[in-house]
Amino acid sequence: MTPLEQTLCHNLQVLGTGHALARLVDDVLRDYPDPYELALRNAQAILQRHTGKKLDPERVWWHQFNHASSSSRSFTGWVHSGPPGRSMGLLQLMIQRFDLPFQDASDELDVYGGFYRQGPGAAWYDERNEVRLLARDVQADFWALDLGAKHCEQVATFWSRHAENFRVLAKINLLAQIAVARDAGRLAPDDAQCLRQMADQHLTAIGVAPTLEGLRRHAMTPITASWFAVGGSDRAAITCLRLSGTRVVVYLPWAQEVLRAFETPLAMAAWLRQQLQDGQLRAGYLGALTADPHAAGAAAIREALQALADTDCAADALALLLASARPVVGDYFALLAAQAREEMRRGAERITSNSELRSGMWRGYLGAFLKVFGSFAPLGWPAALVLLGATVGKVGLDVDAAIHAKDAQGRKAALRTAMLDSVFAALGMIEVGFGSSFASLSHVVPFHENDISLRGWTLSANPAAELEVRVANRVLGAPIQTPGLLQGITMGPSGDTWIALEGVPYRVRYSPELEHWLVVPSDNPFAYVPLRPVRLSSAGEWELLERPRLLGGSPPSSGAGLTRQGSAFWDEYMRTDLVRSNALSNIAKARHRALLAQQDILFVEEEGSPQDADGFFHVMLNGEPEYTYRDGAHYRNDLIYTYTEEDSKINSFLREGRREFAYGDEVEYVNKLADSLVELPKDSDVPLYRGGFGGRGTSGQHFRNGQLKVGDLLVSTDLTSFTENPYIVRRFAADTDQSTATGVEGVFDDTSVVFELPAGHYERGVPITLFSSLPAEAETLFLPGTCFRIENLSEIEGADYHFVNVVLREVSRPASGTFYELRTGQPFDLQAYAARLDNQALASRFFED
């Protein structure tokens, strides 16, 4: 094999361990105590309890005024005009609480204040922008809520679950740093080999990759370790690792250069003394040795560091270091975990309690809260994350930016990348081109690929039909003939992998979970799509495997001849699993954020922006209102937010002509929303799904009974949403007022339908997750008039679900001919549609190109 092929083969051989470690990283970060997310969840619960809606707390404002006017139309009975005297978001209010005079006169809270969807820049605060929430109820919830106690509970739960995982990932970080230091010449090869056995005593050769089983063991090595409690510090931020003979290695897990070997302890002391004579470097050591550089104990640490810097010679510096040395007894990584755990516990105990809030209210408290509470740990960058490879420099955030960042998901994504970078290096993986190797490690393995066995899968009778949507437009070179993982594979210059099956080219990726190659979309090999595993026959030909067809049972009730089949994909995503569903929704949010980041979207300050006559926030651009903009870390579009909040009302107009919209004229709103959606970025990189059910007015019976068939055209006549999170589908394709015999919410019947838009099969869908009041739904929106062709019809059946699966492709709408309403299956009539809307111009906008 060529060197490139050998590299790829090694990467694939360790990929299974890499994915297992990546899952550990995800588990640790998912449960890592983040007080900001804790406050966010509790604020969401308060809003849900009192409004019945899943509102975004970051879009709910508390405003306080010096005057009020009575009104029979508003929820509180009062309205206000002009700028408020005091404003803050709901999360900020949760910490800072209401002004002290109002705490003892709560009946006045709802007279002189209120909760609103708009910030301090609105002209009026009334029924048009209010959140139907009483301040006295919120105040009662606040006093019943002890965030400090909840955070302490978070910390205790985290360590009970992840103490062993912490040890494993700390070992991985050390292995990664060993590789980096060896390549940089700061460690000799023999030093590196000796240090690797600290993580696993069986790592006796540089080329041997660690395994998860080996990393979980407590290694016994000849290396002795001591950490220096400089100035009484209880952090193992400076550790001396003694190798054979007189050689030592200094371990600084927080530093840019983590490991460095020396011939003698005296040489190490001389180097540290020189480091500390630089004021900027000395400040770095101070930050590593104390969680809070302003705490009382920090003064002693500062003085001790200065004393080391001021010593007359290396011997004096070594004497001071040895006086503070603390030998490591037992497992070194257990010590690191214990120290990190204790530091996190102490930090949690600093959180101010409700009684302290009440007796010591001050306006600057939020700043203190954010420093103690707002990022991942108190005041400084946490030792726990440093030991897992997520140092400040590696994450690409300075401490202040991380502490004050509002995008918790973005912080965790940065931490995940940093920690996986350590996994990549520790496993000896090498990039073969354009990030493809790191992507193979870092992508979240689809859940339907994780928990399944291919035992019992058989050869496909018609692979061409099964793989039609994944045919690649590519001329393949000769495949690799060397026996092993790459046999039969054609490798591209960027490490991309391909096969020819029955003479047709397909892109593939290796799944260590299934120990098979999978046929994948050529432009998105990590897409969440149904499994298409292949194997190489003894004759050297690739063969497609398929899940065994369902046996027995009754034919479809309609007798329409739909092909019945099981689906490993839907067996997973018809489950109710909130943790996994949230994981997919977060992936969608990150994807949508990256998409929006490529577009030039206006940025405004957080103080607010003006509203139009109907109360929708916007900014002015060239004399025209622009409804899409960035506000701090958040993307805003009030028109889209209102649609997701009031979906049934505006779609009731488009579906039935009912005018129940509370935010102005329906036609004007739909036109403004459509204008805004047209300007937003679109892509088709992921498959989309949409569920329907007779009880929701979206029956799929007409597909089952043969009324609609492959090749027929469907058009959207309302604002039509799809999701890229397949876990969401069940709640729309089943009767959620009922439960199955096993207690699962959602019962399917013969009206249940699931629409599928494969990646690359649509053009006009607009991802709206970051503008939505329901971001977990990972929604993509299509305007009325979008035309789809039915590509395939089948019936999919599992243990507690069955539905008609309708595979669609977006196509140009023909000038004439018959097409059917996507929602109802009825023939579409433009004149009837215009009459329903009582507005020919609006109907023509969507259906007369």
Structural notes for this entry:
The protein is globular, with a radius of gyration of 31 Å. With 849 residues, the chain is α+β, with helices and mostly antiparallel strands. Helix 1 (3-31) crosses helix 20, helix 7 (147-184) runs antiparallel to helix 14 and helix 11 (279-289) packs across helix 12. A hairpin with a 5-residue loop joins strand 8 (239-242) and strand 9 (248-251). Residues 100-105, 357-381, 395-406 and 551-559 have low confidence and may be disordered. Among the domains are: 167-340, no CATH class; 443-548, no CATH class; 555-590 and 683-849, no CATH class; 600-679, no CATH class. Helices cover 40% and strands 17% of the residues. The protein contains 32 helices and 35 strands. Strands 12-18-17-16-15-14-13 form a seven-stranded antiparallel sheet. Strands 19, 25, 26, 30, 33, 34 and 35 form a seven-stranded mixed sheet that branches. The chain has a five-stranded antiparallel sheet with strand order 10-9-8-7-11.
Class by SSE composition: alpha+beta
What is the 3D form?
globular
Radius of gyration: 31 Å
Termini separation comes to 57 Å
Spatial strand order of the main sheet: 12-18-17-16-15-14-13
Task: Tell me the number of helical segments per DSSP (H or I, 4 or more residues long).
Answer: 32
Question: Roughly what fraction of the amino acids lie in strands?
Answer: 15-25%
* Helix content bin: 25-40%
Residue runs with pLDDT of under 50 for 5 or more positions: 100-105, 357-381, 395-406, 551-559
What's the β-strand tally? 35
- Can you summarize the main beta sheet? 7 strands, antiparallel
Mean pLDDT: 86
